[in-house]
Write a structure and sequence with these properties.
Helix 12 runs parallel beside helix 15 and helix 17 packs antiparallel against helix 19. The chain is built from 19 helices and 5 strands. The protein has one domain: Methane Monooxygenase Hydroxylase, Chain G, domain 1. Helices cover 51% and strands 4% of the residues. By secondary structure, it is mainly alpha-helical. This is Indoleamine 2,3-dioxygenase. Produces N-formyl-kynurenine through the oxidation of tryptophan.
């Protein structure tokens, strides 16, 4: 299915349970209902599993690329269940990122042993062949219990550094996703209630969503408990980069995905980032918050106005980096949500006044969450980028630490102009809370 395709066979009036199941939504929101597989059951894939298990050591020793080039091209025919396909995607994504960024300079060619199965698996899961948020977070964790919001019980299955810092960084997002699981069904009921203008149900749902966003924000603020900003910036972040807008980091043309026998293509793909979280986009979409931010690292000040308006926003573009069912769920919500439309009706009755106030409060809570994210980015990226780098490797960290680069030019792992993008997203959210000024 095309990345932009909408599942037009889905009725907008199906029950919540049927809808959520169809779109791959569980009680844990966009996480699976059970912890992901920690290894592929078929020994045919033992070579992949061995490299993924030893990934941090192979990167440290500088032997990963040699090991990958010695691999045979394996078929995906032995993958059976959805969990196995997801597991294969995670393994291949980590091996690909490690191969590209695990040397003194990035590798511009991905060998067939990774390219061929990675393209197959990505097509099956309706995802791009790169380390997405789904690979690093949604399908890359183990848990000591069934409560995935308990971060102390979580551990990432794969990492590039083998550090607790990296595991904590990934698992914060997993816990955030799980913490918000109840909010999806709550807001689905609120959407249904708009058809009857059932104000009490909608208001209660918005109040619940506001609490949910606060809880998610509280988890985000725990990042520095076990993730050191310097470790993140210099050791972890470079491996999360994609190949889009990464000229300064050593990939002027992106990465060539070599399929063997003279076949292949150059690809420029965004790297993994929390901007690919379906949960955060769900908050925006169900509240009717619109974003126009393009987020490109190439300034557009000299581009014609027509060119600017013709380009999709970053938020629209990263839908392609979400699992297909999740992307189609957000498209469904965008088509059907009427909560903001109802809140925009003129004030007058006590019910309408209450709804408007509650809606604006909830949107402001989302704005406060984005402020917390900006503060986190400042601590983990902006401030470390000002420090002199002794790194010998050419990657996103060394490019960001270029003393000639201004803060406004810092590039995110997703290839965005980092601070301008985040601040505009925050400002667009803030504007949505002002109902009287909306057009």
């Amino acid at each position: 299915m095309s990345p932009h395709a909408v599942d037009t066979t889905t009725s907008d009036h199906l029950t919540d349970t049927v809808l959520l199941k169809r779109f791959g939504i569980t009680a844990n929101a966009f996480l699976p209902s059970e912890a992901p597989l920690q290894h592929l059951p078929d020994d045919y894939y033992a070579a992949w599993e061995l490299l993924a298990h030893n990934l941090p050591a192979l990167i440290r020793d500088g032997t990963l690329r040699c090991e990958v080039r010695s691999l045979d091209v394996l078929s995906t025919d032995h993958l059976k269940s959805e969990a196995e396909w997801r597991r294969a995607y995670v393994v291949l994504a980590f091996l690909a990122q490690g191969y590209i960024w695990g040397g003194d300079a990035p590798a511009q060619v991905l060998p067939p042993a990774i390219t061929v199965p990675f393209l197959d698996v990505s097509e099956k899961l309706d995802l791009p062949p790169v380390l997405t948020y789904a690979a690093s977070n949604l399908w890359n964790f183990s848990s000591r219990g069934s409560d995935f919001s308990n971060i102390e019980g979580l551990r990432c299955i794969h990492s590039f550094t083998g550090t607790e810092d990296e595991s904590w960084f990934f698992m914060i997002s997993v816990a955030m996703e799980a913490k918000a699981g109840y909010a999806i069904q709550t807001m689905m009921r609120a959407q249904e209630a708009t058809e009857q203008s059932d104000y009490p149900v909608i208001i209660e749902a918005l109040e619940s969503l506001s609490v949910c966003i606060q809880e998610v924000g509280a988890l985000l603020e725990r990042m520095d408990e076990k993730c050191n900003p310097s470790v993140f910036f210099n050791q972890i972040r470079p491996f999360l980069a994609g190949s889009k807008n990464m000229r300064d980091a050593g990939l002027p043309n992106g990465v060539f995905y070599d399929e063997g026998d003279g076949r292949g293509s150059w690809r420029q793909l965004r790297g993994g980032s929390n901007g690919q979280s379906s949960l955060i986009q769900f908050f925006d979409t169900v509240l009717g918050v619109e974003h126009t931010t393009q987020g490109n690292s190439t300034p557009h000040s000299k581009a014609p106005l027509e060119a600017k308006t013709a380009q999709p926003s970053f938020h629209e573009e990263v839908l392609d980096y979400m699992p297909g069912p999740h992307r189609r769920f957000l498209q469904h919500i965008r088509r059907t949500t009427r909560i903001r439309e109802l809140a925009l009706l003129p004030a007058g009755s006590p019910e309408q006044d209450h709804l408007r106030n509650t809606y604006s409060t909830t949107v402001r809570t989302l704005c406060e969450f984005r402020n917390k994210h900006i503060q986190l980015v400042t601590r983990y990226i902006v401030l470390p980028s000002r420090q002199a780098s002794s790194a010998k490797r050419q990657n996103l960290a060394s490019a960001s630490a270029n003393p000639r680069a201004a803060e406004q030019e810092l590039t995110g792992t997703g290839g965005t102009l980092l601070l301008p993008f985040l601040k505009q997203s925050r400002d667009e959210t803030s504007q949505a809370a002002h109902l009287d000024s909306s057009t």
